[in-house]
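Quick one, probably user error.
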């Protein structure tokens, strides 16, 4: 089972990311671009068995944190081999 731990962006941030993504789409020769509803910042991506995944989910639900600022500095891409 694949498990993502991610930060979802507020709508105002998503709008800005979508604008950058759309401008890149216009000048790109090819590529796959994330759908609006899939925009997030992945912190961890792992594979677990079902029991481990359920344990991780229950632990993550208990995490409490304060609002924080993050700066998005540059655009990158995944390179497939």
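Nope, works fine. Designed sequence:
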């Amino acid at each position: 089972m694949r498990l993502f731990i991610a930060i979802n962006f507020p709508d105002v941030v998503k709008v800005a990311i979508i604008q950058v993504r759309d401008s890149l789409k216009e000048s790109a020769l090819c590529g796959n671009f994330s759908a609006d509803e899939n925009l997030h910042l992945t912190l961890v991506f792992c594979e677990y068995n079902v029991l481990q995944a359920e344990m991780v989910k229950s632990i993550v639900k208990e995490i409490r944190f304060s609002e924080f600022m993050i700066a998005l500095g540059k655009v990158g891409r995944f390179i497939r081999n």
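Residues 2-61 form one domain.
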